[in-house]
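Hi all, long-time lurker, first post. I run a small reading group and we've been trying to get comfortable going from sequence to structure in the token notation. Rather than ask abstract questions, I figured I'd post a concrete chain and ask someone more experienced to write out its structure so we can walk through it together at our next meeting. Sequence below, copied exactly:
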Amino acid sequence: MTEHISLPVQASQTGAARLKMRHAAERRFRIYGLAAVLFGLGCIATLFITIVSGGYSTFTQTVMNIELDLDRELIDPKNISETDFRKIVRTSIYELFPEVSGRRDKRKLANIVSPGAEYQLRDHVIANPDLIGTIITLQVPMSDDIDQLSKGVIRADLDESERRVSDLEITWFNALREQGRVETVFNTTFFSAGDSRDPELAGILGAALGSFYTLLVTLLLSFPIGVASAIYLEEFAPKNRFTQIIEININNLAAVPSIVFGLLGLAVFLNFFGLPRSAPLVGGMVLALMTLPTIIIAGRAALKSVPPSIRQAAIGLGASPMQTLMHHTLPLAMPGMLTGTIIGMAQALGETAPLLMIGMVAFIVDIPASVMDPATVMPVQIYLWSDSPERAFVERTSGAILVLLAFLITMNALAVVLRKKFEQKW
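-- Answer (accepted) --
Happy to help. Here is the structure in token form:
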């Protein structure tokens, strides 16, 4: 009798122990999951902090206010562009420090101002020819090393052999700052200029317009083709072996490395069709090929999410299959299609490898005016700047990454807003 009573008690104790072990395992699993999430968030936070700390100073620039004598004997009003504006700028700088006499020291003194000062003065005089014969005050950018010194990136307390700026240049800079000639202003050049070999003159406008034209071509090609393909495969295509092969290939293309599409563009669009190298037209065509699988898959998923009862009700009231599609199915599926398109475009905006293969990696100073002009894009511009030896280009790289991230976050946020606003609950 005692043995019969003790068996249920032992079974109950064993079950309680197993339940306790299972609850402990569940708690450990939750802890592991939370630790993984926190680790991922920590990595993202570290990445953002690194980029922001290295790039926020890009949006400011150190400039110098300098008096320039536009002597009529030096400037021919009929041929202003042939004037030696470099001499005018250097003469004005030498007058600020008359004690500097050696050729080597004079060269160093002239180099504290950016080489772009002479072109800025030329453009200013061409736009205002009535200033010839007067003395003007012009705000010109300082060199990249002086700019980095002003921002504290180059430390003045280090030994002279350990920094790019000499003690003499630091003395001149401090003297100019005490005279009130040095200011820190918003860096409009970064947003209004193209690429340059001088970091203080380099901007992202050329790359931004290149990205815009490239994405415009991508959207005009991929959206209608992708939506039409999704509609055909989901609504009209017969379910046979041929359509199954197409569906499998579309799914496989979505996972193909992007550089393969670049090789395809190089072989077909450039070598076979002879389209211009490094043009946004070719870049957009390559990115359209890469984006199509994403749009088709998202479009088919959006069409599948529409309840069959809506189609059946429309057909039951006498609507044709095309009327059912255009007036009922497609309007309800369009928010999902737009969301997939925006996500695909955001992916295309950040692509670099396929564009490198078609030559959009060239050093291009001019701002592109059409899809046929040579251009580069934001990710490629970032790649080019990151490979430059000047310290100021590291700053420009981080600043361009911040701008690119802002565009990507905006596009993904737009996709979320569209999905939330037009999403239908069934």
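A couple of things your group might point at:
Residues 306 and 425 are 10 Å apart (CA to CA).
The chain has 16 helices and three strands.
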